Amino acid sequence: MRFSATRPHFLTLALLLGVLAGSAQAQQPYRILDRWVIGGTGGWDYLLADPGAHLLYITHGPRVEVLDTKTGKPAGVITGLKATHGVALNPDGQEGYISDGGANAVVVFNRKTFAILATIPAGVNPDGIAFEPVTKTVWAFNGRSSSVTVIDAGTHAVVATIALPGKPEFPQADGKGHVFDNIEDKNEIVQLDATTKKLVATWPLAHCDSPSGLAIDRAGHRLFPVCDGNAMAVIDANSGQQLATARIGDGPDAAGFDAKRQLAFSSNGSDGTLSVIDVAHNYAVLESLPTQKGARTMAYDDAADRIYLVTAQFGPRPEPSAANPRPRPAILPDSFTVLVVGR
Q1: Which residues in 150-183 are b (16+ Cβ under 10 Å) and which e?
Q2: Domain count for the chain
Q3: pLDDT value at position 311?
């Protein structure tokens, strides 16, 4: 009887300790856990984690590298492309989609064999790409023709081309029939209706220049565009109202969101940092983790609580010229690397 009478107290204490341990773990700083050297030559753009399959897709010049996230080893490669930008996945587990900007096309591939299944003409230089689950469509945002190509995932047919007010960057779908995208040269976000396939709203961004990466909090109806000027805006996804602006590092190009821990991330290539923002407590900066110069794009794996960034080693920057006033330094061969960030 004595044990029975005190058992609720032991259970309460155990639950309290469990909550405190979880809270302490959530506040632990992120750090670089590993570096996976891929090698090869050429530039890169977006990357995408597939937590269920333990895979990481990385666009790398004319190819897409596929890594096993358990080992960091190659799991496959998709070749025969020209200049890749982004990857989107169909929730059916069968197909994936690549925006091949150099070919002005969207490439459909088999997620088991990585074989190319179809090549679908898009606009000029398709860049950001997203899968919209309500209508089962693929949305490829064309950077040089200021439009979005909408593709039926079942038939692989183009079902709409929607004009945009400027140069689109990264898109997000909310899972309820809306697609959002940054308009980089207008400092705006657009909202598109996936059912009617029309642009329904354009929202200006304050103090957020050249928005590039975009993360989404689907449950909380918030968007997190990252911009030049060390700014991450916080936008109400229903009204377009700007709720806040958080300070991030310099030169961001991608963003991520952790729904479980209520954290937003920005990968900043110019100063080589990863910004970690607490979106539950006044959008405070929890951490500015030194990563590596050039690590401007990232993917968040919510199952493993891992952030993957890519970069390389660079040679000296050439002198500016009239033909090339802002030259980029050359990428050193075989230095292309994935940084694995976690706790």
Answers
A1: bbebeebebebebebeebbbbbbbbeeebbbbbb
A2: 2
A3: 97
